[in-house]
Amino acid sequence: MDPMTRQPLLLILVTGLVLASGTPCEAQSQTLYGGTPYTTRRDNPLDPLPPAAQAETFEDGSFDLAGVALSPSTILGPGPLTDSVDGDDGQLDGSGNGGWSLAVASGSAGLTVTFDAHILGGLPTTFGVVWTDGAPGSEIFLELFDEHGALYASVSSTPNGDDSFDGGTAEDRFLGVQGDLPLGAVRIRTAPVGDDAQMEVDHLQFGDVTPWLDQGHALAGTFGAPYLLAKGSLAPGSPVSLSMQSVLGGVAGALVLGFDQLDVPFKGGVLVPSPDLIVTGVVAEPTGNWQGVFRWPAGVPADTVVSVQAWIPDPAGPSGYAASNAVQGKTP
């Protein structure tokens, strides 16, 4: 960022950022849903869906979600072998033949859904999908990947799948996640007992898009690698929450905020943000937790990128310091 742009932004942040710390730490959380029966939208455990959530039922014969890519798959229209969600054709009759679904040739390979942070303005933290058909006795898995492509969690449903492929809906199961961590991709797959078979899914949905992405580069200290989590839309006047775990308590650390990503060696670790603004006096509780809340100031232009990283004196660090991962947000 050029100096003519940087200076006004710094003035806006300095006048608008009043950090209220010492509140109880809000740890990262996730709720996983592993295989609840599903016949209509009323069975959705995510109901009501979060604001600005997007959902795809395939009922118009197409896939229309911008910023979402699917691995090879085929949309199936009404027919004797189609297994849509029961209520999609307007009748609860135990049959999915009258609706539309998405089919994958190999259930064991599964379906991968990938999210584009640039198009979506961030990554979702909520996702759900309904498994409607697959190999008999299959165990169903929903696997969650972060923005770097690393698998960090999974949830499974008990062995499911009847012995027919004629559209029966008693076996249909919802799998999903709702939490704080951004999803770079998800995969739904089956582990068949015998031969592999085609898999069908329906009612793909996601929401709670967060503009904050994890940039990594934590430096371990006394309690391991400190973890920094950011929440907030970065809309003018909206609250932003920063919370940390695994921090040495009772010592004054600092938050480094910057408009550029440096990634330079520092104190045995990596300093990610340019040090445009340094907020001192960040003191964690004896439990190793810290949280600060402030309101994002008005006047910050759209598409402004800001990175935040914490540095804490810690004798267990390689040069007497520990550092959190960096998080990067982009204003809407």
Shape: elongated
Order of helices and strands: HEEEEEEEHEEEEEEEEEEEEEEEEE
Could you estimate the helical fraction of the residues in percent? under 10%
State the distance separating the first and last CA atoms.
Answer: 18 Å
Query: How would you classify the quaternary structure?
Result: single chain
Number of domain modules: 2
**Would you tell me the structural class of the helices and strands?**
mainly beta
CATH architecture identity of the largest domain: Sandwich
The major β-sheet equals: 7 strands, antiparallel
Count of individual helical segments: 2
Low-confidence stretches: 20-27
Count the E strands.
24
Name of the CATH class of the largest domain: Mainly Beta
Q: Bin the strand percentage.
A: 35-45%
Radius of gyration, whole Å: 23 Å
Could you say what the CATH topology of the largest domain is called? Jelly Rolls
What is the average of the pLDDT values? 88
